[in-house]
Amino acid sequence: MKKWCFAIAASVSLLSLAGCGAPGGDTTASSNKGSDAGIGNSRLQTVLDRGSLICGVDGGIPGFSFVENGEYSGLDVDTCKAVAAALFDDPTKVEYRDLDSTERFEALKGGEVDMLARNTTWTISRDTSVGMEFAPVTFYDGQGMLVREASGITELKDFEGKSVCVETGTTTELNLTDQMRQLGVNFTPQTFQDADAAYAAYEAGSCEGMTSDKSQLVARRSTLTNPDEHVLLEVTMSKEPLGPLTINNDSAWFDTVKWVTYALFQAEEFGLTSANVEAAVNSEDPNIKRFVGAEGTLGSDMGLPNDFALRAVKHVGNYGEIYERNLGEGSVFKLPRGLNAQWSEGGLIYSPPFR
């Protein structure tokens, strides 16, 4: 059962908020530094002063974060772009850092990156002992298994005496061990520091199976020499809620990443898209007017421009647009929304109210 936690700041002292008015005024986030949220000591101020966002990604998963012709694209990449757009009104103000599964958390802790959007699973240990703060889940997934169709393998029990390639330092590695132990299957895990090496070993025949999140397996299968020769087993080994994250104990920066992500969800629910969101400042609906910053102080109360949500949607699109072009019908994967549909459509994508 999932619990949404909201931190409501009390006794807010607002200074120099004139620069964070409705769209059309001077809405640079850096003009608003007086919030009681501790912005001056936050990563938020560091990012604003730098004038760009440093975002940790995988860089090798089509549909999530992938480099082609020198350009990054994918659902995770668009999350980074949305944060940059909200802060700077410019989605290109992002520097991407490719990080493998073992170095990602240390890179965040050490300040090498401002945030991660790197298909990272939200778990209790990562949320507590590792010291991370997880923003809303942007993709609900589950662990699967990729095999060669000609192998004759149809279930996990068929891996008795066989080997499985897996990326080390991931929840995938532990889930695999737990599942095989539960089934009493003696197998050999072949662990790799990064995903590229693991998939290369699988394609070379070093292991009979490759395990990871199902979405990643579908994406990576498309990069194999003969994709049609490989199939996903009808098995789901785990729950894998994936999303962006920040370092612990920095509420101002965490709130920024969290509410920009929620803005993508809420925009879809409101029917606001990259094409019509700017016109929404003239809406008669007070909920939409607050959302786009045409009235109220939702943005300035947290040290952001009041139109931060409008900026993110204008430049990157709502969650539905992002999903469709990267993973849905507008992509080569054509993955159905499933759990990643809006809550009103039977999915789990849900934003708390913008009020």
TrEMBL record:
TM regions (residue ranges): none
Biological process, per Gene Ontology: amino acid transport
Domain Solute-binding protein family 3/N-terminal: 52-280
PROSITE patterns linked: PROKAR_LIPOPROTEIN
Signal sequence residues: 1-18
Alphabetized InterPro entries for the sequence: Bact_solute-bind_prot3, Solute-binding_3/MltF_N
Keywords: Signal, Transport
SUPFAM superfamilies attached to this UniProt entry: Periplasmic binding protein-like II
Family annotation (Pfam families): SBP_bac_3 (PF00497)
Source superkingdom: Bacteria
Family: Belongs to the bacterial solute-binding protein 3 family.
PANTHER family (UniProt xref): AMINO ACID ABC TRANSPORTER PERMEASE, AMINO-ACID ABC TRANSPORTER-BINDING PROTEIN YHDW-RELATED
Protein name: Amino acid ABC transporter substrate-binding protein
Lineage, uppermost ranks: Bacteria, Bacillati, Cyanobacteriota, Cyanophyceae, Leptolyngbyales
